[in-house]
Amino acid sequence: MIRHGLGERRIIEIIMSLQERMPGNPIPFGDDVSAVRIGGNRLAVLKCDMLVGMTDLPRGMSLWQASRKAVISTISDLAAKGVRPQAILASLGLPRSLSERDIREIGSGLNSGAREYGAYVLGGDTNESKDLVIDVSAFGSCSEEEIIRRDTANVGDKVAVTGDFGLTALGLRIIEEGLKVPRRLMVEATSAIFMPRARLREGLALAKHHLATASIDSSDGLAWSLYELAESSGVGFEIEHLPIHNLVKEYALKAGLDAAELALYGGEEYELIVTMKPAALKRSRKLGALKYIGSVTGEEGRVTLRSESGVCEIERKGYEHLKRDSQPQLT
Amino acid sequence: MIRHGLGERRIIEIIMSLQERMPGNPIPFGDDVSAVRIGGNRLAVLKCDMLVGMTDLPRGMSLWQASRKAVISTISDLAAKGVRPQAILASLGLPRSLSERDIREIGSGLNSGAREYGAYVLGGDTNESKDLVIDVSAFGSCSEEEIIRRDTANVGDKVAVTGDFGLTALGLRIIEEGLKVPRRLMVEATSAIFMPRARLREGLALAKHHLATASIDSSDGLAWSLYELAESSGVGFEIEHLPIHNLVKEYALKAGLDAAELALYGGEEYELIVTMKPAALKRSRKLGALKYIGSVTGEEGRVTLRSESGVCEIERKGYEHLKRDSQPQLT
User: Fold this and answer.
1) Cα B330 to Cα A66: distance, rounded to the nearest angstrom
2) Among B309, B319, B280, which residue's Cα sits nearest to residue B296?
């Protein structure tokens, strides 16, 4: 039996430690994407991301939405690097209970996810499996100067995000626990779960104009992703403004919930968290989308939140996959 | 419930029919790999292939062997196109019953499979799932003139293979049913299951010297792959010499088994089936590895076997995944 303490992070460490390293690998192990040099200063950029029905599918999510989301989630990692996705492959593990109509939904959702971002589904593989599995691979290419890495944030940089957080944490509680919220919040929060978007336009603009020093996709949750970004770059972050969605803030106040908690530990939000030189942050204001949230510090691996009551450590806690039964989970 | 008649082929058709086509796609849908133009007459070549524990893991196969085989099976598709694999990504669905030692075996098997063929595992994704899932994505690049497609065989070409068939069919029966066979055959047949090889050297040589007009990997079984190749190219094949492994032939004769059946419907053999102009076949003899088995005919989609007793149709039957329980399977 897996030890409860092993966890996804340790599993990834173990597997990574056993892989012989490619000499001159242009993007280090553990970044959002992998890359290979293909000549003329160009990189082939690769990413795979697996959706498993048991842990990743909230109640009420259609197969169309699930397969679309599997694509969006993979594209989001390319977006964080400023790389345009060109091709998508999808490996499917299909339970035998699926009908022809189910298969159509899956096929159509894959196509939609890809086409929304200008990519095409070029192929894949199908298998029978006990649980629905949708593994999406994405390919794009870019110049080596443009790709935005995870390990290149500098002390003194500013930290910014492409949007607000907290909707998915509420959305999951609405869907899974029947939490009652005002109608507008209900629509926004469940849309954040069922119909997420990837920040490709923003990522491409950041890369093209060399505005970001480092970047990460926030799908593992704001807090977790901040830690990952800080640790990869050997820096710390002091967050001044938590990017909490207005509707979440408003509702949390009335319902007696902790809005900061909802924003920090929600997950699957597909916003980008970027670091930028202060001048670049000013220039990026024209892009409209970026929100300043804090600064890069020299305190390696420390992520703090400054508020009126002082500075406190943000807990290094990630988004956890759905827990539908009582046994311990890998993540 | 899935209709018994739906089958993997129909599922792939449905999903493919729902994908918008990439304009100027250099490799048509349904070939062994997918490809994207990356400038300068170069193609990025992509393939994903999923191994599912329930259907793909024979008894007695270690996790090291399983993860290595998942890589080999993906590389085999690139080999069939004459493309050198450079990067491997692996998405893992891991049952929670796996121990740290199991995870190490999987990580180490992935690395071995990749390094045997000069590629590196650059990244991946891990998830919890009910069944073991290893989805391997491979990337390579090549020139557009060199890649060997599936739809370009011509009437009058010769058909050749890179090796003999029949060992895996016996190997599975040895492993799953306890079939008793002579020692040497036992070793060869079980090795074919547990430690398969991809024909990368042969595929690269065929591409480099422009020796093949078309090619396919035989992992779905000799008969099935012949049909796929013939149909893609709009031709037929007349097979004269079934490439049956000597030990299989010898044993089948003694045991009263049908050696042709074992060779035609075994599957997971990872040999290449290629078509070549007659002159190229002669030239290729220097390469040593290729065996002439028949000729390309104008009878579209017809695959026949010529023997002393006349010409008969080869049944269009594929390799079926393991059937461990009584319910109907997708494939």
Assistant:
1) 21
2) B280
CATH of domain B7-20+27-143: 3.30.1330.10
Given a contact cutoff of 8 angstroms between Cβ atoms, the answer to whether A152 and A31 are in contact is no
Summary count for chain A: helices (H), strands (E): 11, 12
User: Which residues of chain A have a CB within 8 Å of the CB of B135?
Assistant: 48, 50, 91, 125, 133, 135
Per-residue model confidence (pLDDT) at position B2: 38
For residue A265, what pLDDT is reported?
A: 94
Average predicted confidence (pLDDT) for chain B: 92
Contacts across the A-B interface (CB distance below 8 Å): 281
Q: How far is CA A280 from CA A78, A200, A239, A287, B216, in A?
A: 21, 19, 18, 11, 51
Question: What is the DSSP annotation of A69-120?
Answer: HHHHHHHHHHHHHT--EEEEEEEEEE-TT--HHHHHHHHHHHHHHHHHTT-E
Pick the CATH number of A158-313 from 3.55.40.20, 3.40.140.10, 3.90.650.10, 3.40.50.300: 3.90.650.10
pLDDT tens, position by position, A75-98: 999 999 999 999 999 999 999 899
Mean pLDDT score of chain A, rounded to an integer?
A: 92
Three-state DSSP class for residue A246: helix
- Interface contact A195, partner B, CB < 8 A: no
What are the tens digits of pLDDT across the range B177-226? 999 999 999 999 999 999 999 999 999 999 999 999 999 999 999 999 99
Q: Which CATH architecture has domain A7-143?
A: 2-Layer Sandwich (3.30)
CA distance B135 to B198: 17
**pTM for this model (two decimals):** 0.94
A2 contacts B97? CB cut-off 8 A: yes
Task: Give yes or no for A322 touching B (CB within 8 A).
Answer: no
